[in-house]
Amino acid sequence: MGRFHRHPDGTVHEHDHGHDGNHGHDGDHDHRDVGDHTGYLDTGAERVAVLESILDENDRVADHNRADFARAGVTTVNLMSSPGAGKTTLLKATITALGERVRLGILEGDIATSIDADELGGLGVPVSLVNTSAGFGGECHLDATMVRSGLGRLPLDQLDLLLIENVGNLVCPAEFDVGQHARAMVYALTEGEEKPLKYPVMFHACDVVVVNKIDLLPHLDVDLDRFVANVRAVNPTARLIHLSARTGEGVGGWCDWLLDVRRGA
Amino acid sequence: MHELALCQAIVDTVERHADGRRVEQVDVRIGHFRQVVPDSLQFSWELLTEGTELAGCRLVVDHVAAVIECQACGEATTLEVPILVCSSCGSSDVMLVSGEELLVASIDRAREVC
Prior knowledge:
The complex is a heterodimer. By secondary structure, chain A is an alpha/beta fold. Chain A is built from 9 helices and 10 strands. The N terminus of chain A is likely disordered. Chain B is of the alpha+beta class. Chain B has one domain: hypothetical protein PF0899 fold. In chain B, the strands form 2 sheets. Chain B has a 3-stranded mixed beta sheet, with helices on one face. Chain B has a 3-stranded antiparallel beta sheet with strand order 4-3-5, with no helix packed on it. At the A-B interface, strand 3, helix 1, helix 7 and helix 8 of A face helix 1, strand 1 and strand 6 of B.
């Protein structure tokens, strides 16, 4: 069986031999906690200490992304949520509210289809679509390399703020640094109050939790106070912003937060 | 769901360190705060290594407990559930000191080049 590789330029190919790319490793490692790492085992093999993060390669590419963002002077926010929580609707509301004042760009991650990208592109901002099914049958997240593959299609130098819409999923996107300045997640009131306890890593990883669909509050049994307490149990410091992307109520608070991130606040 | 992607990264790391020799075992450390499903990881490992030079190589997972340290009272708590609250004083001003590991710790490789 061959192995799929995705390269920073977005090309994906398959080959059967070892990877001969430049994987130089310049990290400074502490080998003290692994005992005899040249010792021979009973099998005649030798145990060699590696002590490399499994996400080392991802994190290296994320650093390249970060450097590119810094060079272009663009602030990036990684926007995550479960499917249907309202990321795309929030982006549309954001473009409407901020589009005149801030040069926005969107990097749109979806497993398949260009539906969201087409919708956002129609609003006059540059949109780069990354379909994650190009490589491995539908990755459930954006990693640093996938984001990098989409950056070339954006005029980074002409942007102030790049919003990365991650793949709808409350598990995997939280694990991958893509080089963003801040992480935000959208939670919809319709999802129930226990979500922070069921998906603690996602809620823990975020700088801000957008509580969306508050216009539906009168029609739902959801206990908002309990939800907030559950967020606090896994993330004592995240900012909570209540809004309705559909009606526009509270979107100003979200935009203020984006501008704070832009100012490095 | 991302275990396949993680396994591909493990394979790449192992190949970089194999030095052209047969690798019999790979030891990885994975923290409890990481969302890795052990069975899914093993399945992905077998899928990715099948028919390659790593076929038959064992993947051994060392699970690392999630531990928080209270900034208020200094007490360490090993978490059974991912609620970040000090078990001693109830403060939520805590720091996660372990449980986020995701590491290739070592490989066992043959002494001879195959």
